[in-house]
Amino acid sequence: MINIKYADAIKTFAQIESEVIPGGIIFLFVEGLTIKWKVASKNFDMDRFKAGTDLPETSVAARAIREGNTLTEKVPREKYGRRLVVTSIPFVDDSNTPVGAMSILMPRLHPVAAGFPNFAPIVAELFPEGAFIYMTDLTKVAYIQSSKKFTLPNMYVGYELKATDIAYQTIHNKKEQTKEISEEVYGVPVYVANYPLYDEDTGKNIVATIGVVTPKSAATKLKNMANNLASCLTGISATTEELAASSSKIHENEQNLYSHIESIIATLDKINGVSEFITSVANQSNMLGLNAAIEAARAGENGRGFSVVAEEIRKLSSQSKETVPQIKILTDEIKQKISEVNKESRQSLTSSEEQAAATEEVSASIEELSAMTDELNNLAKDL
């Protein structure tokens, strides 16, 4: 208990202390059940406690005055909207009768909240792509910590929790929540993990949550790369299929050309056979013409006309015979040319077969690459 005559000295002390207590503090001077004077830290104040306000009979100050003892109580959030540690020290007059009290109100922080300013900046920088760490009470965001690489501009101290927020769901479902959120919400896809923090005395009631938000930009890059690769492979695959079809057509044409060349060679062989037959006929005609000339000479004047016919036959035979070598020369030249074409055709046929085989290998490789793009997509989803 404190004698009331020291009240002014204690008020001066309280004003000094209100600015140096790290977590903030409120000092109340109560006479009877009425708050007569108050001083609060800049970073911690409660509007419901102000000069002129009457305290209920159940308040810590009222009980300390009644009992004449210093009382300390942990006040749950339900009572004043915040978890508090309240200490009330009775003021007594010279007869040692309680006439009032000095109440000291301090925010009751969960140990994680108390250590947040120390560990959060370090933890946020441990993530390769950066992280955003935050803590909430049961209704709003109480602490935030961004990393150098990543922050959430629309998440701030005092932000009121909504039913769609992960922290809200953690509080109401009473268990940790993890979720992937698309880029529509924060501009980039993120992974959010939020965990409940329980009353440190009972371990039963949730009093706060702590959450970590990490970007999934690497997954987005992988997914975009996979999509671009898949698009390119689709185009290459279509072109390869056209090339394969073209190669097959070329191969078919080469086979037809080869068949035609073989047919032409067979025809040339028949022409050579006809030329040999002409030579044979010419030789026989020449012999017949010679015999006819001999018989015409024996016939004398009467065989003169027949002699002229025989001579013409011999001339025709001679001309036919002279033509046959020329035909043979021409057919040999044609055969030579066709032989060269045939050789080139065979080479072209072999090349087209190799091209078709190579195209099939390329198609198989593209199918493997397509399978790899699917794996890339799956990997991006797992990140």
TrEMBL record:
Origin superkingdom: Bacteria
Biased composition (Low complexity): 351-364
GO CC entries: membrane
Region Disordered, residue ranges: 344-364
Keyword check for Ion transport: no
Single GO BP term: signal transduction
Keyword flag RNA-binding: no
Keywords carried by this UniProt record: Transducer
InterPro entries attached to this UniProt entry: MCPsignal_dom
Domain Methyl-accepting transducer: 217-383
Protein name in the entry: Methyl-accepting chemotaxis sensory transducer
